[in-house]
Amino acid sequence: MILNLFKRKPKGFLGIDIGTSSVKVVELSSTKAGVKLETYGELKAYGYLKRLSDPIQSSSLQMLDSEVAEMIKRIIDDANVSSTAASMSIPVFSSFFTLLELPSMSVKELASAIPFQARQIVPIPISEVVLDWEIIGRFNPQAGGSTVQEKLLVLLVAVPREVVDKYVRVAKLAGVELRGLEVETFSVVRALLHDNQETNLLLDIGARSTNITIVDSGTIRMSHNLDISGNEFTKTLAHALGVNMRRAEEHKISRGLVQKGGELEASRALVPLIDAVMQDAEKIMNIYYRKYGKKVVRVVLGGGSSNLPGLREYLESRFAREVVIGEPFSAIKYPNILAPVIQEIGPAFSVAIGLSLREILPSKLAVK
Ligand SMILES: Nc1ncnc2c1ncn2[C@@H]1O[C@H](COP(=O)(O)OP(=O)(O)OP(=O)(O)O)[C@@H](O)[C@H]1O
Ligand SMILES: [Mg+2]
Predict the structure, then answer these.
(1) 3-state DSSP helix/strand/coil percent for the chain, to nearest 5?
(2) Which pLDDT belongs to residue 132?
(3) How much distance in Å is there from the Cα of 253 to the middle of ligand 1?
């Protein structure tokens, strides 16, 4: 008898997030009692803080495939990962998001209309991108009091083919079976907001960039990416305090925006950066409100930088809205002993958790 070992349904699913400052892996499994954390691990990118001072900011996309694959393999080994089925995320800065309003049509018609639409929006040749889309709603625009034809709200995502190819190569080198690739915003939304029916603003503040996303009824409506994030905070602090990147990073994590005696100025140096992120967020909330008449009820923070001491409170006072730090582990079972660690690493693991949940929860938009 031949044992069909490979067709065996995997026990768990991996979420692999290749970020700018570190690679994170989570293994979740679906049990009768709910979704269970099997294991997790993180490896900081070597020389990351040092590279930050270089004039050309490095990103995970510039790392060699073999380097990234080695990091994944090491985490898999160290964390005793047992499954190989994995989903990986694509950084927002290497993708294009658009919300299209199209006349009502069949799914088949849509499939032939999308490339034409994309051609007008995506700045690189359509033959060099992988396109995906999802109908996220239907609405009846009111024109001068009379109802006009129903429209479709379609979210279009385009990812350069070379980026997709890179991830496929990395997965192969790392020895994992790649089940899906998706733009990281979808992963964060799945981890933090998939069952939330309200209008939320998601602020994913990582190391290299901040993603500002309107999430309505659990789906992405608008998304914008800017380069102000954890790296920029550290650099600004290093400058303000006249210290090296390592010291500045330590200061950022221990003090953040919480002012104290002589360091008053250093904390203040971060405020203009955070205000710039807020300004962009306000703009997006206004556009969304003007177009769809919906107000954001809550701001949800994700990414490692959401733990910046004092940030949540500062944003809450300025946004005049509830601001919460996202908890991607909240619906996941894990040993009690891990609670303090999980509390701390939670926001930074949002992408990895969302990726792993991709195979466990009913699937959403993903690059095919
Ligand atoms: N307690 C903390 N306070 C402030 N900043 C923190 C804290 N913990 C981590 N960070 C910052 O969070 C960032 C890393 O976050 P995260 O792991 O989400 O980024 P990444 O996924 O590597 O980057 P990106 O998504 O931008 O490519 C770093 O800039 C780090 O300094
Ligand atoms: Mg990230």
Answers:
(1) 45, 30, 25
(2) 86
(3) 10
Point out the ligand 1 atom lying closest to the alpha carbon of residue 22: 22
pLDDT of the residue at 175: 97
Ligand 1: residues within 6 Å at CB? 19-22, 91, 206-209, 229-231, 234, 249, 252-253, 256, 303-305, 307-308, 348
Ligand closest to Cα of 187 equals 2
Task: State which H helix or E strand residue 134 sits in.
Answer: strand 129-139
Q: Could you say which ligand is closest to the alpha carbon of residue 308?
A: 1
- Stated as kind and residue range, the H or E segment containing 117 is helix 107-121
DSSP structure class, residue 309? T
Distance in angstroms (rounded) separating the CA atoms of residues 240 and 236: 6
| Residue 8 structure tokens | 């065996």
Average pLDDT over residues 254-260: 87
Structural domains in the chain? 10-357 (3.30.420.40)
What global pTM score does this model have?
Answer: 0.90
Ligand 2: distance of its center to the CA of 347 in Å? 10
CA of 366 to the centre of ligand 1 (A): 25
At residue 142, the 3 state secondary structure works out as strand
With both helix axes pointing from N to C terminus, report the angle between 184-193 and 350-357 in degrees, rounded to the nearest 10: 90
- How far does residue 219's CA lie from ligand 1's centre (Å)? 25
Question: Which residue from 58, 47, 77, 73 is spatially nearest to 170, judged by alpha carbons?
Answer: 73
For 84-136, what is each residue's pLDDT tens digit? 999 999 998 888 888 888 998 988 999 999 998 888 888 889 899 999 888 88
Q: β-strand 22-31 against 34-44: which pairing, if any? A: antiparallel
Rounded to the nearest whole angstrom, what is the distance from the C-alpha of residue 236 to the centroid of ligand 1?
15
- 214: Cβ contacts below 8 Å, ≥ 6 apart: 199, 200, 201, 202, 220, 221, 222, 223, 284, 285, 288, 296
How far apart CA 124 and CA 314 sit, in angstroms, is 39
Instruction: Identify the nearest ligand to the CA of 71 by its number.
Output: 1
Q: How confident is the model at residue 39 (pLDDT cuts 50, 70, 90)?
A: very high
